[in-house]
Every structure is written in C-alpha cells, then in structure tokens.
Amino acid sequence: MLITFKSKSSPEVTMYQEHAERILDVLNKNHTRGVITAAEAAHALQLLEQEVALSKLHPEVDAAHANHSHAHHLQDEDETAEMADKNHIGFAQRAYPLLEMLRAARDGGDNIVWGI
Description:
Elements: E1 2-7, E2 10-16, H1 17-26, E3 34-36, H2 38-57, H3 59-71, H4 77-87, H5 91-108, E4 112-114
Helix pairs in contact: 2-3, 2-5, 3-4
Organism: Pseudoduganella umbonata
Pfam families: DUF1840 (PF08895)
Protein name: DUF1840 domain-containing protein
C-alpha cells in the first residue's frame, strides 16, 4: 500500500506504507491518515533529522530493519542477506523527500497531510 504526503509548499511525496510507518512512528503520527501542522513542522524536522543521524551512526540496525521488511518476500536466508546488502536503501535515503517537504512546509507555513 502507498501513502502520499501532500503540502501546498512542495510536490507530493509517495512512499510504500512499510517505509512511511517508521517515519510516522518517529513523529508519533497515525499511519492511516493525519496532519503535520505548520507549527509542528520544525519539531518534526528535528525528530527526523535525529533519527537519520542515528541510522547513519548505526548502519547495522538500519540494515537489520531492511532485512526484516524484505524477509517476507524471500524464502532463503542467504538470499535475504545478499539481497539486502546489494539493494539496501537506508532510512536516510527513504526519509530525504519527506525531510525536504518538512523544510518547505516549515518555511512556507503550510501543513502536510496524508490519507485524506
């Protein structure tokens, strides 16, 4: 399933739900639908930037999270590890578009909504 984030201050950002859930968990937001108000944008940006920094400091945790999310697609454990190593897209890369949207929302005074 896809989640599309919308804001007047930037283009839409669409993510797979499994990737967006980690971001929304960090922000303590509902996975199905919600809003990050313009007033919340600066704090949300700070929280996500901290999580990105932590994921870069501890890439093994980031990789383990990726293995878990891809494991249901693959039968063999060795194949899972090999696939994760070759195609690993970290949390920082996945969060980047939403970080940019949060910056634009903060600067433009706009809300970000999803699931509406």
